[in-house]
Structure formats: structure tokens, C-alpha cells
Amino acid sequence: MKQVNIKITYGIHIILNMYHILLSILSKNNDLIFNISIDIDKLKENRNDIDEFYLNKFKLLVNEILKINNVYIHFNENYNLTDWVTQGNCPYIKNEEIKILKNNIFTKYKIENIDISKPYICINTKIVNSSRFFNSNKDKKYNFIDKYHLCKNDLFKILNNSNYNIVLLGEKNIPECKAYNFHRDNFGNYIMYDDFKNYLNNIIDETYDNSSDGFDLNNWKKTCYYLTHSKFNIFIGNGGGIHLYSCFKNCIQLGVTDRLLRWISKDNIKTNFFNTIDVETFLNKIYNKYLVNIISIPRSGCMIFESILNKIININNLKYSYCERYNDKCTENIKSCKLYNTNKNCKNYCRFVKNHDWDLTFNIESDKNIVMLRKDLILQLEAIYRQFNQKKNVNYLLEENQLLFKDFIKSNSPYSKLNWKDYCINFHKKYKNKKDILLLYYEDLVTNKENELNKILNYLNLDKKKDYNKIINALEYKNNLNKKNYNIIKNIVEII
Q: Going along 161-303, which residue ranges are E strands?
């Protein structure tokens, strides 16, 4: 068997890289033995806040991470230096072959006495600017400390409106040591912990007082457990923690892909996390993780549904935020967002946003989307006609009313380039068989009440054991159209 000797620097983040690198190489070549040399003296020099107690914890953690067949760890071993190569010079490390494995050691830890029954997200507490991009020129484009301060108020509003628990991971403060002082003086670092504690709701604080406690194996396993089972994870800046976050699903980063990930396949990185340097893109990506679009044709029961939704959310003791999008109704602001046909998000980051998709150009980007229709296109058009003409009942036996109805469905809506008939027909075509949405029919909502309510609760991950009887009993189905009137307007629709 061939021995390969690799000398690496002390950082846990590089050791994380080595875990994926070594597994990828050894899965294809079992005839290799890797000796990994870790310079403890260098660690002690740069992290002078670390004593022997934490050094022993560090060694235990390294042995846990690199507990791989045919891999041997050496701390300060005096081999002939000509026998050692750095990671970048190892001939077996080829970018296109190295992958972050979905089912890796970090996703398999099990921790007792941690309640993960309620949805939560994780966020890091320390921002570090990247030395590769944020150099002596102090390029503002890559100053993620400034970008955080620019967007933090919107970020807090988004996270608080989400109703998710927020798990804080990382340090409470930055220690005085050579490594961190160098970053602070040359690139910048910042602790967000106090901001999060003061302005975020539903906090689960899993941070530690001493930065070196990150070397503790139990803390490490707990962090991995939280990251594994979260709805998604947020990472701001370019600290070493991004290497750990990248091992898990659904990471959203405001930062750059760090150079220490350069050995990993770029396509593989993209499947694990999303990163951007643009603040608006970052905020919208997070917002779309909990935003629920309520996409409906007018007169499909949207007002009834909104009333149900409000009661459901209140029964679950959660914050209710709803944006009407067109009218003066946004629960976070006295004025409407007036978004009309744009694909822009609610300015106030409401969780529930109504949308009629007037020109049928709306692109679904959020994870949750509820679509509301009537099963019968004739009843849909007739209900819209009565609403826009402010009529409760219409006698379609009268020729005058037939002509008025005919002219109406051939006309455009106030917000659309399409006439009412084409809008309704094409809306049905666009959404009726669309995957990954919750499709609700008005008729079912008001007649098959309990079944539809359970669909809504399941889709929104809400507690089905609560008492919703008052909501169910309040629903009532009304159909003001008799058979003769129905057949008349059906003929009108079909001949147009």
C-alpha cells in the first residue's frame, strides 16, 4: 500500500475539508494510507487563548472527524519534511472528484433531551470578512459586516414573522488572541449575538462563552444535530463555520464561497448551499422559505380562507401577518404594498400574501403556495360578474342581463391584459395540475369542511389536535344560481 503524507494547518475548517477529501479518494482507491500531520505548535501560537485542557479537546475532536480507515493522525510528529505535501500539492486531490457527502458523519449524530418537534432555523453568531476578497483596498462589495448592518432590521422582521424558533450557534464574544486580532485589524470580525438576543423572538441559545468550547466534542455533536434537523440554516460572512454549514442541507449564506472549499466540486457545493453577496437576494431567499403565496382567481373563497387562516394561526398562538397585495390591507403597515403584477415580495415580509396572478406571469419561488379555484368555470365567471357589478342576484332570463354578462366576460379586468374568460380558463390550465402546491376548491372548502381544514393544517405544519370546531361550524355554502340561469350563462360562455 502507498503512504501519502499530508501536512495541514490547524483549523477545524480545513480538517472538515479533509474528511470529505479523504473519503472521496479512499472510496475509489483502497491501496492508499494517509498520514495527516497537524501542527499543534502553530495552533498554540495563533490561538494563545487555548490552554492544555482545550488542546486535548481539540485532539479528541480531530480524531472523531478523521476517524476513517487507512487515515492516521499525527500531532507535531518529526518526520522528514520532504516526505510531506500540503493539501494543494497532493496528486490524489482532484476538484471534480471531491464531494460533500449528504449522509456524512455529521448528519448521523443523535442527541437526547433536545426538542426539535417545532420547526426551527439555525444562524451563526460571528461574521468574518474573507481575507481573499476583502483586502487592503477595503472593497465594500465584500464587507459583510457593513452588509449585515444594512439589512439587519429587515432580517429581524423576516425571522420574527416566520414563527420559527431561532437557534443561535457559535460564540458569544471574540477572544483576544493573535489569530482573531489579525482578522479584526486587517479584514474585520463582528459578533451578532447581542443583536440577536435583543431583537429576535423565539430564541434557543446554544452559544458558548469561550470560543475554544467549539472544540468540545459534545458541543460539536449538538451543533451538528441542530444543523441536520433544521428547516434551513443561515450563515453570514466567511468564518470557518461555513465549512461545517456546507455539510448540511439548505444553507443560505451572505458571503463568498471560501477558498478552503476549492477542492470540492463546484456543482456539488451548489446542491448543498446557496450563497450571494447581494443583500436583497439574501433576504428574499430567506423570506421565500416561509412565505405562503395564496394564489387565486377572484371569488374563489379567498376572503373566507383568509378569515380561516387568521383564526388557525391565532389558535396556535403564532404571529399572523397577511398582505392583500392590491388593496389597503397589509397587517404590518397601514398602506398596501400595491405590488399588482410584479414578482416582487411584500415590502413588510408578511408570511401570507394574496396574489391573483392577473397576467399569469407570476413565478413561484417560495416553498409554500396555496392555489384557490372554483371547480365550475361557469360559476367562477358568474360570481366574478356579480362582484365587479355589485349585484347579489341576477335574473339571466332577461335579455338585457345576458348582454351585460356577455360584454363583461369579453372585457379585460382592471389589472390584466386578458379578458375575464381567457384569464379564468388559462389560470385553471396553469395551476390545476401543478405539482408542489396545495390546491383548494371553493366548493370543497365550504362543504367538505373538516377534510379541507386538515389539508391546510398538514400543509402549514400546524397542530391538528387543537379545537377548530368554531371555524368549521362558521363555514356556509351559498349558490344563488338556479338551473335555468346556469344553462343560459353556460351557453353564453361557450359561444364566445
A: 165-169, 189-191, 203-205, 233-236, 251-254, 273-276, 292-296
CB 292 within 8 A of CB 459: no
Q: Where are the beta strands (DSSP E) in 437-489?
A: 438-441
Cα 105 from chain centre: 23
- Single-letter amino acid, residue 23: L
Taking residues 332-343, report their average pLDDT: 54
Task: Decide: 253 and 26 in contact? Cβ < 8 Å.
Answer: no
Total Cβ atoms within 10 A of residue 135 = 13
CB 354, CB 325: distance < 8 Å: yes
List domains and CATH numbers for the chain: 2-93 (no CATH), 116-286 (3.40.50), 292-495 (3.40.50.300)
Residue 174 has pLDDT above 60, yes or no: yes
CA 474 to chain centre: 35
- 336 contacts 327 by C-beta, under 8 angstroms: yes
Strand partners, 126: 191
Instruction: Render pLDDT for 59-100 as a digit per residue (tens, 0 to 9).
Output: 999 999 999 999 999 887 665 555 666 666 777 777 666 777
What is the spatial order of strands in the sheet that 273-276 belongs to?
A: 203-205, 165-169, 120-124, 233-236, 251-254, 273-276
- Phi, psi (degrees; rounded to nearest 5) at 85: -125, 155
Residues 6+ apart with CB under 8 A from 326: 336, 338, 339, 340, 354, 356, 415
- For 21, 71, 360, 385, the CA distances from 326, given in Å and listed in that order, are 52, 62, 16, 19
At residue 470, what is the residue type?
K
User: Among residues 181, 152, 153, which one has the least CA distance to residue 48?
Assistant: 181
DSSP state of 190: E
Q: Which amino acid is at 96?
A: E
